[in-house]
Amino acid sequence: MPEGDQRQGPSSASAAKPGFLAKDIVLANPCKSWPQSSRAWLHQQESNTWPTAEMKKYAKSTKCFVVGVGSRASENAAFEWRFSTSLAERCLMFNLNITQIKCYILMKMILKTYIYVENLDNESYISSFMCKTVLFHCIASKPSCVWKECNILNCLNYCLFTLNNCILNEHCPHFIVHENNLMAGKFSAEVKQQLLERMSTLIPFDGISLFGIQTDNLGEKLQTKFNIINEVHHDIPQSDECIMLITANLLGHIAKAVLKIEKIGSLETLLQTVIQLKIYYRAGNMLEKTACRLLVPRHCTSIGSLIASQNIQINNTVSPQALTWIEAGLDSDVASSRLKLASIMYCVGNTEIAALILSHIEEQYKIEVTEPICDCYKFYKCGFKTGFGQLSGQYGVGSLKDIVAFCVKFSTLEINCVLHELQYEMFRSTQEDLLHRGRRDNWMDCAVVDSLPYHYFLQYKTYSFLQRPAEQQQALTKLGWVIRTEHNL
């Protein structure tokens, strides 16, 4: 196990940390064929039953795996491997109707609320996988006409009753590999008694227990719906709040997609990309035109910056051609393209112009609204700002240029447009690193920084050059402030 990870069955799991999501990874080796124990299930071709012949035909075409975990009931558990039919099970899950899905979710909620018993290793005795397996067995044993929304409580009662029998007999056969008993050696006689006692309070299931479920405030929502309580809890999002949350997330994902698709390369590559985007724009539908409008400005800025870098290397000036390309890309977002222009002006000694550009950016960058967006590494955002959500709902993708601040990215070909302190970022790789480069490791040669910190740092450098110490100190103070207070850098 990697340091800090925990073993959970065949998986390596790590908890969420500030800025990073929890992860759960299973290393699985594909088999050349399905195991003998599963072939009987695959070749059963009963009519009018679940899974259908079509589903089994698809399942048969998927791979089967082995994963590194032994049976709890075995003396050789440390050396054993378990068959995993996860792709076939995913096919079954995708073919559930809405009532069956709701039964599965409610079973998990009920277990979490009323049945959850833990051992010393912090492992639940009744897992989500067992719930899913019980559901599969129940669906296979009842006609499809039973699984309707109007009959959901009876369906849920049947699932809980089946789970209770599995605990009673300590036998829950895997739905596909029947010889695999999911409950073999899973719990002691004492734990079994505790589980059965807790299950007895739910069977027969009358639905009242749903009111006690705190997950997603389900119990409270149900009580409100049936007028059991008159007040809606303040934590339950209202419809306009939900819309704001969804539109903010959609705009955030679109902004990330723009960064992900943006090419880093030579001048010829970027020019060819812009020509292709122009062709797509002319021939495309409304969505394709929108996509091109979002992508072109970023590429224009990069082209202008590449030409400027060549100009600076030759004669320490910036050509009108470079400025024209940069100007075409200024509205890609609130700050990043303008920051590239300010950086270029600083590098050629036009610090007065750089100061003016930076002053304009500061006016445009509304701290309480503008969201920094970056796609350089997997990062869990700490929620969007309220103002960002409101404006994204009002103006859609058109608000990208007004309320999103992309990170500022310089490739090695733009090195002459970068502040000296950032150039070190382009030389992080040792000779040994370069030998083991993958096709996705080119970012190691780039200098990348969030817009707002770069803005204040560039201001600090510019005012230092112009010998304006009061404004220089103010820029330094703001730089420290943004690093301490902006959660989404």
Distance between the termini: 30 Å
- How many strands appear in the DSSP assignment? 10
Helix tally equals 20
Total count of domains: 3
What structural class results from the helix and strand content?
Answer: mainly alpha
Low-confidence segments, given as residue ranges, are none
**Please, what is the average pLDDT?**
87
Helix content: 40-55%
Strand order of the largest sheet: 1-2-3
Strand content: 5-15%
Q: What's the gyration radius in Å?
A: 30 Å
Shape: elongated
Biggest sheet record: 3 strands, antiparallel
Order of helices and strands: EEEEHHEEHHHHHHHHHHHHEHHEEHHEHH
Could you characterize what this model shows?
This protein is mainly alpha-helical and 489 residues long. The protein has three domains: 1-95, no CATH class; 99-205, Poly(a)-polymerase, middle domain (Orthogonal Bundle); 241-431 and 442-485, no CATH class. Helices cover 52% and strands 7% of the residues. The chain contains 20 helices and ten strands. A three-stranded antiparallel sheet has the order 1-2-3, with no helix packed on it. The chain has a three-stranded antiparallel sheet with strand order 4-5-6, with no helix packed on it. The chain has a two-stranded parallel sheet with strand order 7-8. A hairpin with a 2-residue loop joins strand 1 (6-8) and strand 2 (11-14). Helix 5 crosses helix 6 and helix 13 (336-347) runs antiparallel to helix 14 (351-364). The chain is elongated.
What secondary-structure arrangement, pairings included, does this model have?
Elements: E1 6-8, E2 11-14, E3 23-26, E4 28-30, H1 36-43, H2 53-61, E5 65-67, E6 82-84, H3 86-94, H4 98-115, H5 128-141, H6 152-169, H7 189-200, H8 218-225, H9 239-261, H10 267-283, H11 286-315, H12 320-328, H13 336-347, H14 351-364, E7 371-373, H15 386-395, H16 400-403, E8 404-406, E9 408-410, H17 420-423, H18 431-435, E10 447-449, H19 451-465, H20 469-485
Parallel strand pairs: 7-8
Antiparallel strand pairs: 1-2, 2-3, 4-5, 5-6, 9-10
